[in-house]
Amino acid sequence: MCSTIERLEQLAQQRELKGENSYPYPMTEREQILIRLYSYSELGMTPQRFYQKWDLTREDMALICSCSVQTVNGWFNTSCRCYPPTPGHLRHLAIMDFLLEDFETIPKPLLERLHQDSDCCRRR
Length: 124
What we know:
With 124 residues, the chain is mainly α. The chain has helices at residues 2-18, 29-40, 47-53, 58-65, 69-76, 87-102, 108-116.
């Protein structure tokens, strides 16, 4: 794994030197490595673990997971045969946990990219 990360760092430096700014971006070795890392990662956090860690409502969890409150309630209801969370739900919770936990260490340009397509401020 360390050699993979080191290779990505080398490729990133090469990309900076080239100054690639035209779309669509080419699929280089760097992109292929990143796709493989992401595809094979088991990024996920269970709703129960997320709920234990963060003091939030089930409405908040539904918003994070882009699903209904009824779906979230089903994940916590042991007496019914409800559908379990999907890998997408687990990934949303893991990413949100990362954002909540490490917000201060995230570079401002990345946060701006996260916010640029969001309509959170326009809803109010």
